[in-house]
Amino acid sequence: MARGDRSALPGGTAMLVLALLQEREMYGYEIIEELEKRSDQVFQMKEGTLYPVLHSLEKEKLVTARDQEAPSGRKRRYYRVTAAGLQALEAKKEEWQVYARAVTAILTNA
Amino acid sequence: MARGDRSALPGGTAMLVLALLQEREMYGYEIIEELEKRSDQVFQMKEGTLYPVLHSLEKEKLVTARDQEAPSGRKRRYYRVTAAGLQALEAKKEEWQVYARAVTAILTNA
DNA sequence: ATAATATACCTAGATAATCTAGGTATAAGG
DNA sequence: CCTTATACCTAGATTATCTAGGTATATTAT
User: Fold this and answer.
1) What are the pLDDT digits (tens) for A48-66?
2) A71 CA: nearest nucleotide by C1'
3) What tens digit of pLDDT does each residue of A72-90 get?
4) From the Cβ of A52, is strand C under 7 Å away?
5) Least CB-packed of A107, B35, B47, B105 within 10 Å?
6) What is the mean pLDDT of residues A1-12?
7) Taking CB atoms and an 8 Å limit, are A39 and B10 in contact across chains?
8) Among the listed residues A94, A109, A9, A42, the one whose alpha carbon sits nearest the alpha carbon of residue B94
9) What is the mean pLDDT of each run of 10 residues along chain B (110 residues)?
């Protein structure tokens, strides 16, 4: 549909991830669970989707990562959103709203 | 994200097309112009996206097509939504709303 | 004890939607 | 006459996501 950055649009995994991290740092597995819970089971993101997204967000410096052991003993990789990440989030949210408004305009047409 | 029919979701070209055809029959080029106009320039669907979608909608019997010459003399192919198409539209709209609500829930989180 | 499930990370290759970039042909406008 | 707009089309590239694996440790059930 030629609207530039498709990654900010539905299917916009990055936007959802950044939105969660805005609140607090989280590790991958936790992100999947939170998305599922907060979306009332609508989002069931696959690991094969999330982990590559996290890696590319890290490469773009929109998040930083650190390893930490859980009390249980399992290793977790926590992600924290950067200032650039917050900026990117705002841009993606705006794009989402433009897109959602446009869809609504078509669906509630004459 | 594993929600079954990805085609009903943003990027859901088929839903937008069916929504327009609900109103009246249209030809391909017209659909592109209408989407652009009604979305306030947000949707700028490419011909390479639309025509294949129209062909697959026709194969699925969600639309029917007929050729008609314009007063200008150019040949146009008009598409009309079928009863099955209207049903599909309702399903896609419902899916869209579930999806949009879920996104909103994440974006307006705690 | 041990088997199964849940947690936690990862990647390679397949699938599917959309775009790019062409092609054809006619009509209208400069 | 030449360019732009209209109007249709398709093949191949791109990209997001999924499938389907793999590894390893912790918890729960049998």
Assistant:
1) 999 999 999 999 999 999 9
2) D26
3) 888 999 999 999 999 999 9
4) yes
5) B47
6) 51
7) no
8) A42
9) 47 90 96 95 93 95 94 92 96 93 89
Report pLDDT for A71: 84
Three-state DSSP class for residue A19: helix
Query: Which residue bears the tokens 């029917």?
Result: B64
Contact (CB<8Å) A99/B42: yes
Q: Please list every residue in chain A whose beta carbon sits closer than 8 Å to the beta carbon of residue B31.
A: none
Dig out the tokens for A3 from the structure: 């609207």
C-alpha B8/C-alpha B96 separation (Å) is: 7
Residue A3 neighbours by CB distance under 10 Å: 15
Protein residues closer than 7 Å by CB to strand D: A 6-7, 11-14, 45-49, 52-53, 72-74; B 1-3, 6, 27-30, 47-48, 51-52, 54-55, 70, 72, 74-78
